[in-house]
Here is the input.
Amino acid sequence: MKIIFFGSGAFGLPSLEALIKAKENLVAVITAPDKPKGRGLKLKQTLIKEKATSYNLPVFQPEDTKEPHFRETLSSLNPDLGILIAFGSILNREIIALPKMGIINLHPSLLPEYRGSAPIPRAIIKGEEETGNTIIKINEGIDSGAIIIQERVKIKPEDTAGSLSERMAREGAFLLLEAISLFKEGRAELKTQDEKKATFAPKLKKSDGLIDWKKEADEIYNLVRGLSPWPSAYTFLEAKRLKIWETEVKEEQGKPGEIISADEKGILVGCKKGSLLIKSLQLEGKKKMSAPEFLRGHALNTLPPTMV
Here is the structure.
């Protein structure tokens, strides 16, 4: 079976590695173009490209997947199946129709719930205790294709978007291999998604991270986890942005935003219900540090009494 792989983000890396180890016939790996990054603006490859080139797989980096030349190139490979994971671009009808069996996608949610670009962060922010991976056969819609196979994944209380994404990417790779086996054996059954149950997980913005201390401590705790490592939850202190990285819910009550205490355990801040113990943080222009480290350089009795 000739397979073409579409992927740019780190979420797709375990799946690409699994396909390589399973000795699947990868005839092309499609990924985003190299982009300038860092102070020197040096061109940076995607992790997908780095992995593919290390195994001498043919790599294509189209600026636009709608280009006729790109479609002709893929068509000449005569692919049987396409796999798309965290590619970063929407494929048009012509590309979707190229592989004989279509293109399948690994999406980190229990579709039709949390369609869109940020299903993992949004599930954590909402306080979900469970999510999952879904393999669908893609269509021209956004994550609306027929379901091939699903697997539930528990969200641990300590999970961040980063840690959960890494775990789901690893588990999703095994699910992908299972889906490929179903196609090879002619046993893949497609289940239409229930549109009435569809929910959406829109792309994250930096402004999503602003903490509203008038919310309950549980809600803010979930926000911090869901926005780690990007774009991060934040508040303001000394008129500077203060990123909040690690917290713990406490029962002590204070006014929303009020600094109740600050000691070696952390900085305790009042919320609408309960309070939040800040355990690690990062002041604008500074490195990430533990609360005790931060307090050694910031005597809170000289600071504003509240975080806003």
User: Anything to note?
Assistant: The chain has eight helices and 15 strands. Helices lie at 13-21, 47-54, 68-76, 93-96, 119-125, 161-184, 217-226, 291-297. The chain has two domains: 2-197, 206-302.
